Amino acid sequence: MEQRAVPAPDAAWLRAPCGLLIAGSNGLIERVNDTFCNWLGYRRDELEGRERFVDLMPMGARLFHLTHWLPLLQMQGSIAEVQLDLVHRDGRRVPMLLNALRREADGSFTDEIGAMVATDRKKYERELINARQRAETAEAGQRGLNEALAREDRRKDEFIATLAHELRNPLAPFANVLEVWRQRPDDASLWHWGQAVLQRQLDQLTHLVDDLLEVSRISQGKLDLRREVLDLGPLLANAVESVMPAAAAAGQTLSTRLPERPLLVDGDRTRLTQIACNLLNNASKFTPEGGAVTLSAGIDGDFAVIEVADTGAGIPPEHLERIFDMFSQLTPPLERSTGGLGIGLALVKGLTELHGGAVAARSNGLGHGSVFQVRLPLVAPTQAPTDAPAEPSDQAVTPRRQSTRVLVIDDNVDAAETLVMALELLGHTVRSAHTGLAGLAALEQFRPDCALVDIGLPDIDGYELARRTRAAPWSTDIAMIAVTGWGQEADKQAAAQAGFDAHFTKPIDFNRLDAAIGELLGR
C-alpha cells in the first residue's frame, strides 16, 4: 500500500496549544508538532520517520491500542476522548486525552491524532467552570444593579411628580387669596384672613425647601452640628407641645412618657428637636382620627432611647429595611392623601447618625401601627445642661424711631419692591437697584447705612459687588447683608470673605433682619 504524501506543517500547526501528530498506515509518525514533543521531552526529528505512535505507550496502553483503538478506527473512522498514558523520554507516564480521525485516499490512509495532557484538561475544565460561575455571579450582580437603578429611577420620577404636587399645594391658596382680594379689596376682615393663610403656606414652602437642603447637606457631609450638653426631657416635651395642635385637629391622642431623671446627650438642640418633630409628624400623618401617638424616652445601657409609637397604618415587612431611604414612599403618588416628599425619615436617619446614634423601625404589618426608635449616646452628668434659648417673637416688628437709609439690590423686581415696601413700613428710607453695576452706582450716590444684596445678579454677582464696594474708601460705614436663596455654610463663608457683614437666606424673617440692621449699625 503506497504512503500518501503529507504536506509540510505550517507555523500555526507546529505551535498549536494541543499536541498534533500524523501517523501513516504503518503506524510510523510522519509529522508531529512542537507542543506534543515538548510534553514528552523529544525533538521533532527524533520522532518523525523514526518512531511509531504505539511505541510511545506503556504495555497496558499498547494492548488497548491493539484491541480497541485500531478496530474502532477501522470501523467508524474516528475516536473521541480516550485517555491513555504516554511515556515521557525520562520514563514518566503522562496521562493524555486523545482524539483521532482516519483519512483515506488512493488506497492508503493516515491517522490524524490530537492530544491534550489530561491534568491540563481538568484544570481548564475547572477554570471554565469557575469562569462560568463568575460570569453568572457577575450577571446576577448586574441584573440586581439594573433592578436597583430602575427602582431609583422610578423613585426619582415619583419624587419629581410629588415635588411638583407639594409645590402646587401651597401655591393654590396664594392664587385663591389674591383672587379674593381682587374681588373684595375694601374688606379689612378678608385682608387679615388672607394674611394668615399666606403665612401658613409660606411656612409650609419654607419647611419643604429647608428639608430638601438639609438632606442635601447631610448627604454631602456639609452639615455642622452646634453641640452642647443638654437634657432630652425638656426638648422632647417642647417638641410634643409644638405638634399637639395638629394632632388635636386630626382627632388624635398625643401622650408622653418621660423619665424624671435627666437624659444628658451631647448634641445640637435644633437638630434633635427636628428629629423628634419629624417622628411625631410622621406618626400623626399616618394615624387616623381617634388614633393615638405616644412619645416615650428612657435609658438602655449607655444610650438614651426615644420611641414614637402610633396606632396608624403600619408598615409592610418588606418595606421596613428601606423606610429610611431617600424619597421612600409606601404608596403610589396618586393614592397618597398624606402629602410629603418622603424625606422626613431620611432626615431623621441622617441627623441621628451625625450624633453617633442609630434609628430603627418595627411594625407588625399593615393596620397594626408602627414604632420608631432613636438611640443616642449618653454623656456622663459632669456638666450642667445648657438652658434652651428663648423662642423668637412672632409679633410684628414695630417701626423704628430712628430712620435708616437702606439700599436693596435684587434682579427679581417683585422681590426687591416688596422688600422695599416692607422696610419703608418699618420706617426706613429705601432705594432699589436690579443689577450689580446699577447697585454699585446707587451705593456711591445714595450712600446707604445698610445694603441688602442678592448674590445671583445678572452682570456681576453679589460677591464681586461686595468686593468692589469694600475697595472704595466711602464704604467704611456701610453695613452689607447678603440676602439670597443660597444658604449652605460654604455660601455664608463666601459672603463673609467677600465683605458682607451678615447673611440671610430667603424668605426673610423680618424680626431677625430688623434686629440685625440695628445691631450692625449700633442703634
From TrEMBL:
PANTHER family: HYBRID SIGNAL TRANSDUCTION HISTIDINE KINASE C (PTHR43547:SF2), TWO-COMPONENT HISTIDINE KINASE (PTHR43547)
Membrane-protein topology: Multi-pass membrane protein
Residue stretches spanning the membrane: none
Subcellular localization(s) per the UniProt record: Cell inner membrane
Upper taxonomic lineage: Bacteria, Pseudomonadati, Pseudomonadota, Betaproteobacteria, Burkholderiales
GO molecular function ontology, one term from the record: phosphorelay sensor kinase activity
Residue positions where 4-aspartylphosphate is found in the record: D454
Main location: membrane
Gene3D superfamilies found in the cross-reference section: 1.10.287.130, 3.40.50.2300, Histidine kinase-like ATPase, C-terminal domain, PAS domain
Protein name (record): histidine kinase
PROSITE patterns per UniProt: HIS_KIN, PAS, RESPONSE_REGULATORY
E.C. number(s) listed in UniProt: 2.7.13.3
Domain Response regulatory per the UniProt entry, residue ranges: 405-521
Catalytic activity: ATP + protein L-histidine = ADP + protein N-phospho-L-histidine
Any one GO cellular component localisation term in the record: plasma membrane
Residue ranges of every copy of the PAS domain listed in the record: 20-57
UniProt keyword annotations, A-Z: Kinase, Phosphoprotein, Transferase
Histidine kinase domain mapped to chain residues: 162-380
